[in-house]
Amino acid sequence: MNSQSAITPPPAPSYRRHGNLLVLSGQVGVDESWCPVTDTFHAEARAAFGNVRRVLAEAGAEPHQILKVTAYQSDLEHFAAYNEVWTEEFPDLRPARTTIGAQLFPPFRVELDVVAWLDNPGATT
Amino acid sequence: MNSQSAITPPPAPSYRRHGNLLVLSGQVGVDESWCPVTDTFHAEARAAFGNVRRVLAEAGAEPHQILKVTAYQSDLEHFAAYNEVWTEEFPDLRPARTTIGAQLFPPFRVELDVVAWLDNPGATT
Amino acid sequence: MNSQSAITPPPAPSYRRHGNLLVLSGQVGVDESWCPVTDTFHAEARAAFGNVRRVLAEAGAEPHQILKVTAYQSDLEHFAAYNEVWTEEFPDLRPARTTIGAQLFPPFRVELDVVAWLDNPGATT
């Protein structure tokens, strides 16, 4: 059970696209009600990647179409745990990536920036 | 009146483009003489977004063609003020975005990274 | 002579591409055996840019095709040294750039994020 209060969603869409390029807003570990899922780092990272997959699906892309993941982490001590979740998420073709330490909004310890490609140069949104 | 001394412009162009992709150098709150505009966070953020709009115009793009804004802030305590300026800048179609805390060059408190699309795949510059 | 122990390569490819877009994983100052080259900041930055050039060459691109360099630095006190290496690397056409302070994995003081374009929309990898 998740007992944390919901955060306010940022005043921005979860993605924008043009041509074959898809860029996502930074994704954190929240559930579908925007309540933080931060009991463990593993749970938080899985929730953040789950939100990445959900936004990709909305935009018409799949995880193998992710070109790059930039992970901002509040403390690099979670790096080994992050790699465990990373290899779960990408068992085969993996994105390029960068991982750096930065200040995040509490209670979050990881935020994911994603750039992906789209199959069809559909409508710009 | 702005009483701060001019900073040295970085040894980089304000943008590069290829095909329909436009990427900007990080934009901060300086006036046309590269003097910091940092009396208040609101003024600084408005100046930084003003520089984004100016560079976009030079490159032949408009604000609705911004796909992503990554905002680096020296302290996330300015987040509410940032959101006020954000909604002024983007009353309608908004970019995807990520906002994180990072170390910036004093006296700046916010720096904006922008990716946008261009109408015409013009000359690569 | 480089006396530092090798680091573990991250579980990610050094680049991904789609169409004319090339994105690199964050590059740091390591030699071909993944041993840190960090005796001086200059040496480290040159090694990091050397790795950028090596990955670009693998992907079929040249330095003038770099659109953007985002440099994460553990302390902005090295900014002057970074600019010296930057102007060595890009004597003519320079990329757009952003430079911010962030937490990096010791012993590294600089990490480079690169976006470039490719001549031919070859195979997606």
Summarize the structure.
With 125 residues, chain A is an alpha+beta fold. In chain A, 24% of the residues lie in helices and 24% in strands.
Describe this structure in words.
The first copy, chain A, is of the alpha+beta class and 125 residues long. Chain A has one domain (15-117): 2-Layer Sandwich (60s Ribosomal Protein L30, Chain: A), CATH 3.30.1330. The first copy, chain A, is 24% helix and 24% strand. Chain A has 2 helices and 5 strands. Chain A has helices at 41-59, 79-89, and strands at residues 15-18, 21-24, 66-73, 96-101, 110-117. Chain A has a 5-stranded mixed sheet with strand order 1-2-5-3-4, with helices on one face. In chain A, helix 1 (41-59) packs parallel to helix 2 (79-89). Chain A starts with 14 loop residues before the first strand and ends in an 8-residue tail after the last strand. The mean pLDDT of chain A is 95. The A-C interface holds A 20-21, 65, 67-68, 70, 75-76, 79, 83, 86-87, 94-102, 115, 117 and C 10-19, 21, 23-26, 72, 102-105, 111, 113, 124.
Which fold name fills CATH's third level, the topology of chain A?
60s Ribosomal Protein L30, Chain: A
Strand ordering within the main sheet of chain A: 1-2-5-3-4
Can you identify the CATH class of chain A?
Alpha Beta
DSSP strand count of chain A: 5
Q: What is this structure's SSE topology?
A:
Three copies of one chain form a homotrimer.
Chain A: E1 15-18, E2 21-24, H1 41-59, E3 66-73, H2 79-89, E4 96-101, E5 110-117
Parallel strand pairs in A: 3-4
Antiparallel strand pairs in A: 1-2, 2-5, 3-5
Helix pairs in contact in A: 1-2
